[in-house]
Amino acid sequence: MTNEYSTQPGDQPRTWRRLGAHTLAWVLPGGAWGMSNAGLVMDGATALLVDTQFDLPHTRTMLDALTQQLPNTSIDVLVNTHADGDHTWGNQLVSGAQITVSEATAKEMAVSPTPADLYALLDLPTGDPLGDYMTDLNQPFDFTGIAPPPPTREFHGELGIAVGDTNAQVMQLGPAHTSGDTVVWVPDDGVLFAGDLLFVGVHPVMWSGPIQGWIEACKQMEALHPSIVIPGHGPITDAAGLAEFRRYLEYVQAETNRRFDQGMPWRDAAADIPPFNPAWTNPERIAVTVATIYRDRGGDAPGGFNEVMTTVANLANGTLRRPRVAPLPAQDMTEVARHALDTTSTGGLADRQRNAPPLNIFATLARHPDLFAAWMPLVWQLNDGVLPAADREIVILRTALRCGAHYEWDQHAPVAHAVGLLSSDLAAIVRGPADAHWAPRQRALLRLVDELHATTTVSDHLWQDLTTHCDERELIELIMLVGMYHQVAFALNALRVPTDACVGVSTFPGIPAN
Ligand SMILES: [Zn+2]
């Protein structure tokens, strides 16, 4: 979305963005720690402000911009969506406004960390992972002079507030992110201010939980059918953004529960879960959410804020999520392994690999030279077989998606483009076989991937369909191809093969629901 506030990371917006007749949004770029959004519901001379900023200077900038844009409007009500400082520590600058929060948020505000608590973390010695991490994230902010006034109105459940002739529905949908999460719904404009029940393009943190409560909160927000949704962090979105975020929560819930049930310690689980969408920033925050799920299930939850945040810091600085088997430096490869890479094959991957440093997946498997040497010819053969190249890449990309193997996706997306697939084809691979984009043959191939992935076999019905599109050699090759790329995905995920330097920002679209 391009608009007047899409500034560079680190910049503050200069203006409030008009959303509808009665609604405006203040959106900070990036959505990282403390970079929180705010909202306004207004009608003529009166307004309701949704949240303040993390410090007084940021709040002042936001309020000054509002005075400039709407000089005759005064803020009569301030709603804090939850207790976190990045939404409340500017409250004292909204003088005269009635400060409205849910009862649970009021309780949490009384015991939440204060600016002094944050400053104490900044005093940790240099080299302490938590101190370094906190210094980094607090760098854009100045916490001096913060003295938030207590809330003046508490509510439970739902509260309708008249703003002139328009109506703001204030609804508590937590506990989830925190204990009292609240959203503000403006039906006249179809605008939902979701607070930190929604993060866009950035990983959320779940301090309170339960995660099922957060998933239910997402469903309640989706049921409002908003046309515009303002997250607590990240760019403005719509109902589709809500649905994607809910799927993220369902993914983390399932992945965490599986590891809990296997008896994996929480810290290992936090390091082990592959990102749902590697393009989202602050992936280290998953540690907070995993810790909360473990705590809810009575597991080996961390003792307190500092302990969980130290794990967040260690995830961010790479101490925790290291390759389990590091790729072999090119000069250390044995003759056997080197020979296996030296290919006379043509076709997708072989073409890309020629004259390039070995991909990390190959350099990792080359630590077992004989196995590697026996395996590589099959890789080249499947990349240069009887299947048309475009069909081969459709199958590989769908397999990568189903397996959550973003490395595989990022390597094969350029190959797919090189053999003629378009961005619209890749988008349809994500939407799956039911999508109207597909011709019958490609639809059958996508179904094949999904069935093999889910059931390890192929139904009679699908087989019948496949035989009308593919000959015998193609059928055998297809099944071996899906199997091969599951094998590669297992290796990538389980050995934690690091992203190759030649890959820039990951384009992996997230694991599909269907
Ligand atoms: Zn926040």
Folded structure, characterized:
The protein is an alpha/beta fold and 514 residues long. It folds into two domains: 17-248, Metallo-beta-lactamase, Chain A; 330-495, Up-down Bundle (AhpD-like). The protein is built from 20 helices and twelve strands. The strands form two sheets. A seven-stranded mixed beta sheet has the order 1-2-3-4-5-6-7. The protein has a five-stranded mixed beta sheet with strand order 8-9-10-11-12, with helices on one face. Helix 1 (56-69) links the parallel strand 4 (46-50) and strand 5. Helix 5 packs across helix 10 (305-316), helix 8 (266-272) packs across helix 9 (286-296) and helix 9 crosses helix 10. The longest helix is centred in the C-terminal third of the chain and has 24 residues, at 472-495. The protein is globular and about 75 Å long. The model is unreliable at 1-10 (pLDDT under 50).
Write the layout of secondary structure elements.
Blueprint: E1 17-20, E2 23-26, E3 38-43, E4 46-50, H1 56-69, E5 74-79, H2 85-88, E6 98-102, H3 103-111, H4 115-122, H5 129-138, E7 153-155, E8 158-163, E9 166-172, E10 182-186, E11 191-199, H6 211-223, E12 228-233, H7 239-261, H8 266-272, H9 286-296, H10 305-316, H11 335-341, H12 348-353, H13 360-365, H14 369-382, H15 389-403, H16 406-418, H17 423-431, H18 440-455, H19 460-467, H20 472-495
